[in-house]
Design a protein that fits this description.
The structure holds two protein chains of two kinds. By secondary structure, chain A is of the alpha+beta class. Chain A has two domains: 87 residues, Aspartate Aminotransferase, domain 1 (Alpha-Beta Complex); 90 residues, Winged helix-like DNA-binding domain superfamily/Winged helix DNA-binding domain (Arc Repressor Mutant, subunit A), CATH 1.10.10. Helix content of chain A is 58%, strand content 13%. Chain A contains ten helices and six strands. A three-stranded antiparallel β-sheet of chain A has the order 1-3-2. In chain A, helix 1 crosses helix 3 and helix 7 crosses helix 8. The longest helix of chain A has 18 residues. The radius of gyration of chain A is 19 Å and the shape is elongated. In chain B, strand 2 and strand 3 form a beta hairpin. In chain B, 57% of the residues lie in helices and 5% in strands. The longest helix of chain B is centred in the first third of the chain and has 28 residues. Among the domains of chain B are: 78 residues; 99 residues, Orthogonal Bundle (Arc Repressor Mutant, subunit A), CATH 1.10.10.580. Chain B is mainly alpha-helical. Chain B starts with a helix and ends with a helix. The chains are: A alpha+beta, B mainly alpha.
């Protein structure tokens, strides 16, 4: 193995450890942390890792500070972004149960996210609660919204307006979700 | 024909109504195009010549500010509608309501790529934790109170206690009494019933002057003397009482701040202080 290849193999291992294992309260690793551990060429290491992960249906996902995805990010934008490992393909509803979600809670999350997306990224908590109450028991509605906020799917401001938070941006393909709902 | 007052009143009501409508659009994420900005701007323009007082001009500025926010929202609205993410919220809501739970889940999992994260103990972390445990003292030893530092017992002289300011040369009440007598003597020497404030407190050094101002404040507070203030002449006199007077309950007590700064003391020394 050439020396260059050996260096990248070692960086790949280090990147895998950093990205897979939980290090902070929030999952994922900030770009500047990766630069510190892997060197300035960490975007290249992430690309290599992403290629390796394809075979096992995983991917490296980058969530930028800006709300939207950036097509050609600068090094500064990558440094500030958070990088995660997410599932590349789809899971079945049965598998969703295995990742710790009850079907009701997941349906509530799906409805909440879709509603917020269609309302230009924000909706009042009351509106969302009314929607969920239609199909979920009343006592569960508030608890569920709090849970979505705690997990990082939603964020709430002082006027009780709900917005999509970092986890939704990391995990949910918003356009695909709306297209799929409308196609049903 | 409307009087000017009536027109002003009507204008204020109109502006308040515009502000309220704008606020409801901003806060409840309603369609910002519900507001006819042109019409509202004409209304603001129409009443503008009537405003003469600052409050009305502020109301006018606030209206313009809220209308500007609505225009910004309209811009965002147009931008959003032109993106591929736009869908009619009502259409989507209807869809969501009609879908059974299972189908919603089926749809969502196709667009959901959950984060993968692991929590696992490694041999290395176990070894580190064991080493930490071995070096960790038992709780009763860690939280033990430290014994007070040992000090040697000895005796202190009165002079040492005076130097440390633990004891005073005289008791405070004795000191205040002698200060009061000094004030009375000063007044008698002037053949008057009062003495200018700075004439009594002013001394050769600034420290001594401040000390006398401090004692004088107690003379006044405890009723040994009173201050006489002539605001027009900017003069303050201090007048001693023959016997201490208790004012509590008779008159309302007031605090009078008197500045005794270095500059004032210097002016007093030069004789230029008024």
């Amino acid at each position: 193995m050439s020396q260059r290849k050996a260096i990248y193999a070692s960086k790949l291992k280090r990147a895998t450890h950093l990205l897979f294992y939980k290090r902070h309260m929030k999952p994922g690793v900030k770009g500047w942390e990766l630069r510190k551990a892997l060197g300035a060429d960490y975007p290249k290491v992430l690309k290599l890792l992403d290629d390796h992960l394809k075979a096992i249906d995983l991917q490296v996902r980058t969530v930028f500070e800006e709300e939207k995805d950036v097509e050609k990010p600068s090094l500064e934008q990558l440094d500030k972004a958070r990088h995660f490992i997410t599932l590349r393909g789809e899971i079945t509803p049965k598998e969703a149960k295995m990742v710790g979600w009850r079907i009701d809670d997941l349906a509530g999350l799906a409805i909440t996210i879709s509603h917020i997306i269609s309302n230009r990224g924000k909706a009042t908590r009351k509106e969302v609660e009314d929607m969920l109450r239609d199909k979920l028991p009343g006592w569960k509605v508030g608890l569920n919204i709090d849970r979505y906020i705690r997990y990082g799917y939603l964020i709430q401001d002082e006027n009780e307006q709900l917005y999509l938070d970092w986890r939704t941006r990391a995990e949910v393909d918003q356009k695909a979700l709306i297209d799929l709902v409308l196609a049903k | 024909m409307q009087s000017k007052r009536e027109r002003e009143k009507e204008g204020r009501e109109n502006l308040a109504r515009i502000i309220e409508t704008c606020k409801s659009v901003e806060e409840r994420s309603l369609d910002p195009f519900l507001i006819d900005v042109n019409e509202n701007i004409s209304s603001v323009k129409e009443y503008f010549p009537e405003w003469t007082i600052a409050e009305d001009l502020c109301l006018d500025a606030e209206t313009i500010h809220h209308l500007a926010s609505v225009i910004k929202l309209q811009g965002e609205w147009v931008k959003h509608r032109s993106t591929s993410l736009y869908t009619d919220p009502f259409l989507l809501e209807e869809k969501l309501k009609s879908l059974p739970k299972d189908e919603i889940i089926e749809t969502f999992v196709q667009a959901w790529h959950p984060i993968i994260e692991l929590e696992q103990i490694s041999v290395h972390s176990l070894a580190e934790a064991t080493a930490y445990w071995i070096n960790l003292l038992p709780v009763n030893k860690r939280w033990q109170e430290k014994p007070p530092a040992e000090v040697q017992i000895g005796s202190a002289s009165r002079e040492e206690l005076l130097n440390e300011k633990i004891l005073q040369d005289k008791a405070f009440s004795e000191e205040l009494d002698s200060f009061w007598h000094e004030l009375k003597i000063c007044v008698q020497e002037r053949d008057d019933v009062k003495i200018p404030y700075w004439g009594f407190i002013g001394r050769g050094t600034y420290e001594e002057t401040v000390q006398r101002a401090f004692m004088t404040s107690f003379l006044v507070t405890y009723g040994y003397a009173t201050l006489e203030i002539h605001p027009l002449e900017e003069e303050i006199f201090i007048r001693p009482h023959e016997e201490p007077e208790t004012k509590i309950g008779k008159n309302q007590l007031v605090s009078i701040p008197i500045s005794v700064s270095v500059e004032e003391w210097k002016k007093w020394k030069k004789g230029t202080l008024r």
